[in-house]
Design a protein that fits this description.
Elements: H1 2-30, H2 45-49, E1 71-75, E2 80-84, E3 90-95, E4 106-109, E5 112-118, E6 124-134, E7 137-144, E8 160-163, H3 165-174, E9 180-184
Parallel strand pairs: 1-9, 7-8
Antiparallel strand pairs: 1-2, 2-3, 4-9, 5-6, 6-7
Length: about 180
């Protein structure tokens, strides 16, 4: 019986250690200076800084001022994402739940991905696609595997943009390292 309980203790400690390393790696990523592989200036800032006109008849339509070519488009005002093909066709669009810190309107590129980590709210998350950093806070898309057990405090600064698991899978397949992410108002 002693061997069985000591094995459980070792397994528990190993799980805690792996989770801690994941959190520390995510925090270390967030401290990388903005000039190191963060923003890709392929779309002029003026093109994405202004509020993009919306088609009031079709609120899910891709905003005209979101650039051209293959890209992820993220509207911070509408909490919506579009996955856009090289020919400008919307492959998928979906609503998201943003964190408390928004990236500035600009063009970025995906610079880090993690298949599974623990979110700042303590929830296990999957398909993490990071593309920016704001004041040391990593910004990226992710899907919660199950609802978080706790909520971040109201003054916690978080950069996770949550999507459903199905949308997270689609983002994971589409937004590989280097994929352009255009952030608009």
């Amino acid at each position: 019986m002693a061997d069985s309980s000591s094995g459980m203790v070792v397994a528990g400690l190993t799980t805690v250690a792996v989770a801690t390393v994941g959190v520390l790696a995510f925090q270390a990523y967030a401290t990388v200076p903005a000039g190191v592989g963060r923003a890709a200036k392929s779309v002029p800032t003026a093109a994405v800084a202004s509020k993009a006109p919306r088609d009031r008849r079709n609120p899910t339509a891709l905003p005209a001022s979101s650039g051209t070519g293959e890209r992820v488009v993220y509207s911070v005002d509408d909490d919506r994402v579009w996955l856009v093909s090289a020919r400008g066709k919307v492959l998928r669009t979906f609503k998201v739940a943003p964190g408390s810190v928004d990236p500035a309107p600009d063009s970025y590129s995906v610079d880090s991905r993690s298949n599974a980590v623990t979110g700042t709210d303590g929830a296990p998350i999957e398909h993490v696609v990071r593309f920016a950093s704001v004041d040391g806070i990593a910004i990226g898309f992710s899907a919660a595997v199950r609802p978080p057990q706790t909520r971040p405090a109201p003054d916690d600064r978080t950069g996770g943009i949550r999507e459903s698991r199905a949308d997270g899978e689609a983002m994971w397949q589409f937004a590989t390292i280097g994929q352009r992410v255009v952030v608009i108002r």
